[in-house]
Specification:
Blueprint: H1 49-59, E1 73-79, H2 88-94, E2 97-99, E3 103-108, E4 119-125, H3 139-162, H4 164-168, E5 173-179, H5 187-197, E6 213-219, E7 227-231, H6 237-247, E8 255-259, H7 267-273, E9 279-283, H8 305-325, H9 338-349, H10 355-361, H11 385-394, E10 396-397, E11 414-418, E12 421-425, E13 427-431, H12 435-439, E14 451-453, E15 460-466, H13 469-495, H14 497-501
Parallel strand pairs: 4-5, 4-6, 6-9, 7-8
Antiparallel strand pairs: 1-15, 2-14, 3-5, 3-13, 7-9, 10-12, 11-12
Helix pairs in contact: 3-8, 3-9, 3-11, 5-7, 6-8, 8-9
Length: 511
């Protein structure tokens, strides 16, 4: 049950027994609560080949029938230390753990000049979860969804660049937000909704609150089906307008169906702060997750031509609908190249050492492995790429010389002169630390209170030999006999020490 107790209309106080789902027992029907099990023994993830060879030695002790082979056998001892947590309040009081506190990144394609202007908030979860954090890939859970939002930023940025004056005159501001920490009870979105409620969101000149939110558009898992479901209460004009625009899509390869329920998703955090905030959750699941590998190391996707084409069409459809819902030109449609979508999918689904990452970061030494996006207690490595990608997708050529490429000549823009061009972006970051830790309420039932225990870096596997019980007994008895014999010799030598050492004493002489 994702976000159990933290969805709209729920409370953790209503959970009376372990593994009790409150409002959405069928949403993740295949879930087995493994991430929340209190396992009384250590479980190790071993990836180094030399360590695996050690373990294979001990596995070789047993034949195919399950019987032990002849002695001596191999034994392997695995060591890892982690502080006992008990609960968040106790662990923090002892100083043995740290709260989840990564970063949220958000951008609007033009500077926010009027804080009273309505805001369309496009949000997506940028983290993932799995039993082992190194394997938190979240291909269907969030990676493909992130690609959709990156694509929407790029597609709308091109419309902005073709008509910057018209784009600034839209009936609202579009803010794209990547939430890093929502895999564990919505800590990141709770912080964003909390900041909006307190009017502490973004830079000082933002000065926007939850009352400014015209619509929250959340992009959820979308890679498993060509039919996407628009979960919404459909009670506000902004909701019904966008629902109608998406529902009337003429593309035969994509279908949009409206469902008047709100399943577990980040949008719930905004509803819990203000139940009147309009919102739509876009996903490929209707009544239950079709991703059977949710929060598993097996949640990976292959980059295929079909997936790339589908994601490209979803991006163009969503971006066009959002743009036109804010009064954009009805003859203008968003368009993104499928080649760029393919590059984004490669980076987030296949390897970090992808051409796009190498080009943006100007590096050739990136890890050649799939990107893990686990929520941790500091700025996660997976968020390192986020700001660079967001700048790349949203930047605007300001046509200024290097000496004038600054915020004075381009108010509201974050400027950077790159390869002879002055680019401007509007990029911000905020801590994704749960409001419970901001308020110091470590037993909060309103906000997420996830922490992580500290552990020792001294982890190893030690290999040794195990003798048979017969050999052990023989060695033990031999040792006792030898000890008795040596003790007897020492006793006799000590008893006759005067006779033994008499001849070695120096003779006395007269002075």
């Amino acid at each position: 049950c994702p976000g159990n107790g933290y969805n709209y209309g729920e409370s953790v106080n209503d959970i009376k027994e372990p593994k009790q789902c409150l409002q959405h027992p069928n949403w993740n029907r295949n879930g087995n609560w493994l991430l929340f099990e209190d396992i009384p023994f250590g479980i190790f993830l071993v990836q180094k080949k030399q360590e695996i060879m050690k373990l294979n030695k001990s596995i070789e002790n047993v034949d195919f029938t399950g019987k032990l082979k002849n002695y001596p056998l191999w034994g392997a001892q695995m060591k890892a230390f982690m502080y006992a947590a008990v609960d968040t309040a106790t662990c923090l009081r002892r100083g043995n753990c740290d709260p989840f506190k990564s970063k949220n990144y958000f951008t609007n394609l033009v500077p926010l000049e009027d804080p009273k202007k309505p805001v369309v908030l496009v949000i997506v979860k940028s983290d993932a979860a799995a039993f082992f954090k190194q394997l938190s890939f979240g291909g269907e859970a969030s990676a493909a969804s992130m690609v959709v939002v990156f694509g929407m930023i790029k597609a709308l940025a091109e419309i902005r660049d073709s008509d910057i004056v018209g784009f600034k005159k839209l009936d609202g501001v579009i803010i794209f937000t990547f939430l890093h920490g929502d895999s564990f009870d919505y800590g990141a979105s709770q912080r964003m909704a909390y900041d909006l409620k307190k009017k502490q969101f973004g830079k000082a000149n933002y000065n926007i609150s939850l009352s400014n939110i015209k619509l929250v558009l959340e992009i959820g898992p979308i890679a498993k089906s060509n039919t996407l479901y628009l979960h919404s209460r459909a009670t506000s004009p902004s909701e019904t307008d966008l629902l109608q625009r998406l529902g009337s899509t003429t593309d035969p390869d994509i279908n949009f169906d409206t469902v008047k329920t709100i399943p577990p998703c980040s949008y719930n955090s905004f509803l819990r702060e203000n139940s009147s905030v309009p919102g739509i959750f876009v996903t490929d699941s209707k009544n239950e997750l079709i991703d059977s590998n949710y929060a598993s190391r097996k949640d990976i996707l292959d980059v295929t031509a079909t997936l790339t084409t589908t994601i490209t069409k979803v991006i163009n459809t969503l971006a066009t609908a959002v743009y036109r819902s804010l009064g954009g030109n009805t003859t203008t449609a968003a368009s993104i190249k499928s080649e760029l979508v393919g590059e984004l999918l490669e980076c987030y689904l296949v390897t970090q050492n992808c051409s796009l990452f190498r080009r943006i970061l100007n590096r050739t030494d990136l890890p050649d492995k799939r990107l893990s996006r686990y929520s941790i207690v500091s700025t996660a490595n997976s968020t390192i790429y986020l700001p660079y990608l967001m700048m790349q997708m949203s930047r605007r050529n300001l046509s200024l010389p290097s000496e004038s490429c600054n915020s004075t000549n381009a108010p509201g823009w974050d400027t950077k002169f790159v390869n002879g061009t002055c680019y401007g972006t509007v990029l911000n970051a905020s801590f994704a630390l749960s409001p419970a830790f901001v308020e110091g309420n470590y037993t909060s039932t309103q906000y997420s209170t996830w922490t992580e225990s500290r552990w020792s870096a001294d982890m190893y596997i030690r290999l040794f030999r195990i003798a048979s019980s017969h050999e052990e007994t023989t060695i033990f008895v031999t040792g006792i006999v030898y000890c008795f014999f040596v003790s007897l010799c020492i006793f006799q030598c000590n008893r006759k020490r005067e006779d033994i050492f008499r001849g070695s004493q120096p003779e006395e002489t007269d002075s």
